[in-house]
């Protein structure tokens, strides 16, 4: 895509990640990062929608990213977050403890990211925390959606087996149909040693940049 469209898509996605509200042209026109006319912004948004990067909820004048939009943002636009010294020191301190290090880190990361964390030392030993964080997200106001995603945890072993197969040697981001934990969610995961795996599960609208940065830090300190 053109750089101008990239910038628009970045602004829309990052604002939506923060607010969970569809993003309208008014916000973009008033953005200090853009020097575009209202007509240009509206035309570019319409083209992004026609190309499948955005969708237009019926109840709103704004747009939200599609799975294709997230994939493009993650692969082409996103800059990985660098954890600040507070996070580095807190996780570093836990990493030096003698017992249940990854379980303690999992709980801390679930709090940082306000999502769920799943950790497996192998497929026979799976631990998860932060489920209430996940279901407190705006996406789960819909009862049927909550029931559908909660049922995933009853099949956690099978889902984790698929996740193991999908993860390479670096941090992996799986969105929508590529995510074994459900096509309405996103997951960021990294392998730990020979058989371990550490993953953050959230709605598709999750802060992928911050999540990747924190998982890379965990890989460094463990």
UniProtKB/TrEMBL annotation:
Keyword Nucleotide-binding appears in the UniProt entry: no
Signal peptide range: none
Superkingdom field: Bacteria
Keywords for the protein's UniProt record, in alphabetical order: Repressor, Stress response, Transcription, Transcription regulation
GO molecular function ontology, one term from the record: DNA binding
One Pfam family of this chain: HrcA
Record-level GO BP terms: negative regulation of DNA-templated transcription
Keyword Cell division: no
Heat-inducible transcription repressor HrcA C-terminal domain ranges (all copies): 86-212
PANTHER family for the chain: HEAT-INDUCIBLE TRANSCRIPTION REPRESSOR HRCA
Protein name: Heat-inducible transcription repressor HrcA C-terminal domain-containing protein
């Amino acid at each position: 895509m053109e750089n101008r469209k990239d910038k628009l898509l970045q602004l829309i996605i990052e604002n939506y990640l923060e607010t969970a509200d569809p993003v309208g042209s008014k916000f973009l026109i008033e953005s200090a990062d853009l020097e575009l006319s209202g007509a240009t912004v509206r035309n570019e948004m319409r083209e992004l929608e026609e190309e499948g990067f955005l969708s237009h909820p019926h109840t709103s004048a704004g747009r939200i990213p599609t799975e294709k939009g997230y994939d493009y943002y993650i692969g082409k636009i996103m800059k990985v977050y660098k954890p600040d010294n507070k996070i580095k020191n807190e996780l570093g301190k836990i990493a030096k403890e003698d017992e249940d290090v990854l379980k303690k880190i999992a709980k801390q990361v679930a709090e940082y990211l306000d999502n769920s964390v799943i950790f497996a030392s192998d497929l026979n030993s799976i631990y998860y925390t932060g489920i209430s964080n996940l279901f407190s997200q705006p996406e789960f106001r819909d009862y049927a959606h909550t029931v559908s995603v909660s049922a995933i945890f009853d099949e956690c072993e099978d889902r984790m087996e698929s996740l193991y197969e999908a993860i390479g040697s670096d941090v992996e981001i799986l969105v929508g149909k590529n995510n074994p934990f459900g096509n309405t969610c996103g997951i960021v995961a990294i392998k730990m040693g020979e058989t371990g795996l550490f993953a953050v599960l959230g709605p598709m609208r999750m802060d992928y940049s911050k999540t990747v940065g924190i998982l890379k830090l965990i890989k460094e300190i463990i």
